């Protein structure tokens, strides 16, 4: 009769709880090494194989406890996918679409770039900004939740900064060159939090760089007097190019974060805590 | 010592164990148990997330090898980890002296 491999059964039970870890296979390999070593030492002392495995597993801890410990961040908060984080992923993808729509709408009929947004189009842009920013704000909240962020100062700061951008950018969309900067700072805080939790991806830095790079492009093109000058003495080509660049980069960052959050299966109940 | 009380000091204990030289997870846990006289009541599996977290914080580095016939990960203290250990050790010394004073000068923790 084949000997029971309790360690393999234990690892099978544990592995679903490790699936959000980077290199989950290596984590499982490391834990298996520990368990096999521990059981082998017990067996060497004369304990039979099954009892040795049972003792080893008892010392190691219940699979759900070990999985939970792996999914806590440095502050002890649960950092796992939830229905909320998945919805935030969807929201990020919608936000990306809305930002691109805003950029296309702004350029509509103005490819000669002789003026910035016309008075007629500004309310449409403002409405698109508002919708895009609300979706972006939801994405920020979902991403921070994914890292286990609760009500700590970083989370609150990021949400307040993103909220400021919602209000100011929607009220004065033409002032995006400055009013988007709080959003960039919020994105920086989110990206740093992701990195600290080992969840960051280089694509997330696009969210941080997008608006500053767009503003810098606008400032540079204004300084170089690129294109025609409008009735305000400004250069619409600089305005449109900077905005298009910012939106393109920001949308790419949102798509990256949206795809990631949306792809993760929400966790179920672990140790009495609903993730 | 109950797991919950120990958790706040696990980083220090693990860094201290690894300051003596590179070790794999099993050896770290064995040494923790040996040095504490088996007084740390913590599931062994919960030590690994701490090792991983310390590595993410660049306090530890790790390498894989197959010398024992199984893939095995060995941890070692990084330069940043050495500094962190020194800081945590100082903080612990101050804390334990303060508690000892409050308790009337009795040595604490009790020698094992």
Biggest pleated-sheet summary of chain A: 2 strands, antiparallel
Q: What are the low-pLDDT stretches of chain A, counting only 5+ consecutive residues below 50?
A: 269-275
Q: How large is the share of residues in beta strands of chain B?
A: 5-15%
User: Most extensive chain contact?
Assistant: A-B, 24 and 19 residues
Stretches of chain B where pLDDT is under 50 for at least 5 consecutive residues are: none
Quaternary assembly? heterodimer
How confident overall, as mean pLDDT of chain A? 88
Number of strands of chain B: 3
| Strand order of the biggest β-sheet of chain A | 1-2
**Strand percent estimate of chain A:** under 5%
Largest sheet features of chain B: 3 strands, antiparallel
Helix content of chain B: 40-55%
Radius of gyration of chain B: 15 Å
Q: What is the N-to-C order of secondary-structure elements of chain A (H for helix, E for strand)?
A: HHHHHHHHHHHEE
State the end-to-end distance of chain B.
Answer: 13 Å
Word description of this protein:
The complex is a heterodimer of chains A (275) and B (112). Chain A is mainly alpha-helical. Helices cover 68% and strands 1% of the residues of chain A. Chain A has eleven helices and two strands; from the N terminus they run H-H-H-H-H-H-H-H-H-H-H-E-E. The C terminus of chain A is likely disordered. Chain B is built from five helices and three strands. A three-stranded antiparallel sheet of chain B has the order 1-3-2. The longest helix of chain B is centred in the last third of the chain and has 24 residues. Chain B starts with a helix and ends in a 10-residue tail after the last helix. The mean pLDDT of chain B is 85. At the A-B interface, helix 2 and helix 4 of A face helix 3 and helix 4 of B.
